[in-house]
Design goal:
- By secondary structure, the protein is an alpha/beta fold.
- The protein folds into two domains: 75 residues, no CATH class; 240 residues, Zn peptidases (Aminopeptidase, 3-Layer(aba) Sandwich).
- Helix content is 34%, strand content 16%.
- The strands form three sheets. Strands 3-4-6-5-9-12-10-11 form an eight-stranded mixed sheet, sandwiched between helices. It has a two-stranded antiparallel sheet with strand order 1-2.
- The termini are far apart.
- It binds N~2~-sulfamoyl-L-arginine (0X9) and zinc ion (ZN).
- The site of zinc ion has 4 residues, from loops.
């Protein structure tokens, strides 16, 4: 277990903040409601409510105590000790390589591109004859995790599905049918640089790690990172407003789309300097839009136990909303009767622009965003149960897309 206190906050025994590193003063001031120079638990909790819009609608979708604990690791600049039970980037890369070695006829590990820090964005293509047949004529489905660095649990369901498909192939007719007839792409770590930074430096980190350089006004900035789920954009100019709504100008933050998508480079929801500017976004769009056979995508995020479907940029219903709702409810039932997620339109959570869900849907790709777990980094004991239940929802989705394809046009 690693514990690296690089204190920018020191706490008293009562849990009050004793001193703050100069770099953290403005953050501390914004949390310190009565400006008495000390942070109380309730101030931290209120701060979390303000900065995280995923409210606890039904009393069971957020583990507030854990979220608070995880947030304190961030404040104290400590490593979250749960990290020891979550796989590193290298572990995930090795796991995919092992699956390819064990099932060479069924799986191929492919690099979709390289990140700013030089890591490969690994995918595992799963399909019969993966490395020797042209599998592109089959229905393509992509399962992704970890657009957002701190959402450690979101890496797991895609990995779990890969294992179940390949390990079940020889004995389960259902798994064999999927691997023989579909082309399933598993991308557990879309944002490996951010993931490693969140594991080792700041467990609350969300964005990727590419320095912004210049803001959209041409001013130099020392900000690091773009929110990858605000950086998606369509190559088709008719969908330009899905990246940047009409009336929003690059050089101003006052016209930003609520707080959920920002032109401010230091913001956690910074959309990037230009549409699809980031290598991770380009890698995913290259697969999802250019390969030509991709009909369905599930994007895993954390947290809040929700099955979210397009649209996210407007509260208008998406074409085919009935199917989105019906399949979402079936996925939810597969997750389990006892702990159902909430099935709803993405914009009901909060409206955004530049998210992968809307861009993909506009291109005819049927898709969901799954918000899994009750905090960003659930206790290690939860990894197994959550992965299993969410993997079942993934199987329902795979079957649906294999049977009925992408968005009807
Ligand atoms: O904000 C996001 O990107 C996702 N939530 S998270 O807390 N994991 O960051 C939700 C995206 C869902 N899509 C839209 N609301 N458009
Ligand atoms: Zn997320």
């Amino acid at each position: 277990m690693t514990s690296i206190p690089r204190s920018s906050y020191s706490f008293t025994e009562q849990g009050r903040v004793q001193s703050v590193h100069p770099d953290r003063l403005s953050e501390a001031a914004s949390i310190d409601a009565n400006q008495d120079g000390a942070l109380q638990e309730d101030e931290i909790a209120a701060y979390l409510e303000r900065t995280d819009s995923m409210h606890d609608h039904e009393g069971h979708t957020i583990d507030k105590e854990r979220v608070l604990t995880e947030f304190k690791f961030h404040l104290r600049k400590e490593v979250n000790p749960e990290v020891a039970g979550y796989p590193s980037y290298e572990d995930v890369a090795a796991d995919l390589a092992r699956l390819e070695r064990t099932y060479p006829y069924l799986a191929e590990r492919v690099s979709l591109g390289k990140t700013h820090e030089g890591r490969d964005i690994w995918a595992l293509k799963i399909s019969k004859g993966a490395r020797c047949e042209d599998t592109k004529s089959r229905t393509g489905i992509v399962l992704t995790g970890c657009h957002h660095a701190r959402e450690w649990m979101s890496v797991q369901p895609p990995l779990k599905v890969a294992h179940e498909l390949l390990e079940g192939y020889a004995t389960s007719p259902e798994m064999k049918r999927r691997v023989d007839n579909a082309e399933i792409w598993v991308v557990p770590l879309v944002n490996p640089d951010g993931y490693e930074y969140s594991r080792n430096e700041d467990n609350w980190w969300r964005k990727n790690r590419q320095p912004v350089g210049q803001d959209a006004c041409g001013e130099a900035t020392d900000a690091i990172g773009t929110d990858l789920n605000r950086n998606y954009a369509s190559p088709d100019p008719q969908h330009a407003a899905l990246y940047r709504p009409e009336g929003d100008t690059p050089c101003s933050t006052s016209d930003d789309f609520g707080w959920a998508t920002s032109d401010y480079p230091h913001s956690d929801t910074f959309r990037g300097r230009t549409p699809a500017s980031e290598p991770e976004t380009q890698a995913m769009l290259g697969l999802e839009l250019n390969r030509g056979n991709i009909k369905g995508v599930i994007d895993h995020h954390g947290y809040g136990e929700m099955v979210l479907y397009p649209w996210g940029h407007t509260d208008q219903p998406a074409p085919g909303q009935e199917r989105l709702n019906e399949v979402g409810n079936r996925m939810n039932r597969a997750i389990g009767e006892n702990e159902p997620f909430r099935v709803m339109q993405s914009s009901d959570l909060y409206p955004t622009s530049g998210t992968s869900d809307d861009i993909l849907y506009a291109h005819g790709i049927f898709n969901y965003t799954l918000e899994i777990g009750r905090s960003f980094q659930p206790p290690v004991s939860q990894i197994g149960p959550i992965s299993e239940s969410v993997a079942r929802a993934n199987m329902v989705f795979i079957d649906e897309v294999m049977a009925n394809g992408g968005v009807a046009r």
